[in-house]
Amino acid sequence: MLLYLRLLKESFAFAMNALRSNKLRTLLSLLGVTIGIFSIIAVLAAVDSLDRKITKDLSSLDKNTIYLMKRSFGPSDIPQWKREQFPNMKYDEYIYLKGAMTNTEQMGYQMFTNRESIKYDSKTVSDVNIIPASHEFIDIQGLEFDKGRFYNESEANSGSSVAILGYEIAKSLFEDLDPIGKNLRLYGKRFTVIGVLKKQGAGIVGGNSDDTTVYIPVNFLRQLYGDNSEKVLTVVVFKPVKGVDMDAYKSEISQKLRRFRGVKAGEIDNFFINVFSGLTDLIDGILVQMNLVGWVISGFSLLVGGFGIANIMFVSVKERTNLIGIQKSLGAKNRFILFQFLFEAIILSVLGGIIGLLMVWVISIVLTKVLDFEFVLGIGNILLGTGLAAIIGLISGILPAIAASKLDPVEAIRTGM
């Protein structure tokens, strides 16, 4: 055992000495592996970071949450011209379903509308995401507050001009002032701030974040636009009780809404029942595809890096043929020569991998600070990058190392002279 440890130690020392003696060649050999490892780990780290962010953004929502609306989350067999004829969800349909549905924990009504500007004194914030919603959304969305509260059922039903501000909106308008009780202008009306949401960070899903969102009672916008405005897209949101049979629950929604709308037997539904898990599955599929594309593209870089190391090792064997012959004539075993060149290839590759990982780590820190997005380089990706580099070095160096170990000492000395 000690003999083999000494063999490995001496082979490692010879490999390090060879790398130090040819610094320029060593540097050029590193580049291919560095770029390959950097490409793969950067893609995997970016996808992991997106996945974590999406999971965090959606953690407050039940995967069984249902969005009943005239649009579909995914592809549909129904022609587009027919889908465009589907009616918006009406407020009275929400009221009816709220009283008629069973096995429902919460049900809310929401409008998707245009972005607006909001003003306080001389300060204006543009491109604000406005969410008119019923009072149940505090529980459906799992909203958390930095200050104040959400509007209650009475305020929501009467369409009171009260507003809940996202963290960044409140900071931009009021800076160090307490926003609660202050009045601002929205839709040309005066709104009273009654709550400020906790800081959420950059949004991924839908491109929006609660930090840049303002919640107002849905009935305020109904009074302003009416129930048939083309400026809004309406949705009824269902949060079923735990453990409910989702197929039966969706069937109940379909049957009751068809009956309320007077849809005849044999006619298709003029609405879509979108389960939130379908959206998360779609996102998961996109992330898998991103990973796959990253592996394919980065794989070419690794392939080039591997060929580069193999080429350098063959050149190294040829340059040191005379030295190999001398070592063998002095009693060096084949395995000593094998390990010497194999270590050299693996060290080259692993060093390139470490440099690639360091580049990803530095960029992740910069992006986290600049983009307000947590870019994470996980321990799994670090181990993967190091392992890949070692495997590339092993594969690239095995043939040159075997060729070196099998050289005849007399022929090697004669060839090198």
TrEMBL record:
GO cellular component annotations of the record: plasma membrane
Membrane topology annotation: Multi-pass membrane protein
Protein keywords: Cell membrane, Membrane, Transmembrane, Transmembrane helix
Principal location listed in the UniProt entry: membrane
UniProt-recorded Gene Ontology molecular function terms: transmembrane transporter activity
InterPro entries to which the protein is assigned, alphabetical: ABC3_permease_C, MacB_PCD, Macrolide_Exporter_MacB
Keyword Transmembrane set for record: yes
UniProt-annotated location(s): Cell membrane
Residues covered by the ABC3 transporter permease C-terminal domain: 296-409
Alphabetized Pfam families for the sequence: FtsX, MacB_PCD
TM regions (residue ranges): 26-47, 292-315, 336-363, 375-399
Ranges of residues in domain MacB-like periplasmic core: 26-255
UniProt entry tagged with the keyword Transmembrane helix: yes
Family recorded in the similarity comment: Belongs to the ABC-4 integral membrane protein family.
Protein name: FtsX-like permease family protein
Species this protein is from: Flavobacterium caseinilyticum
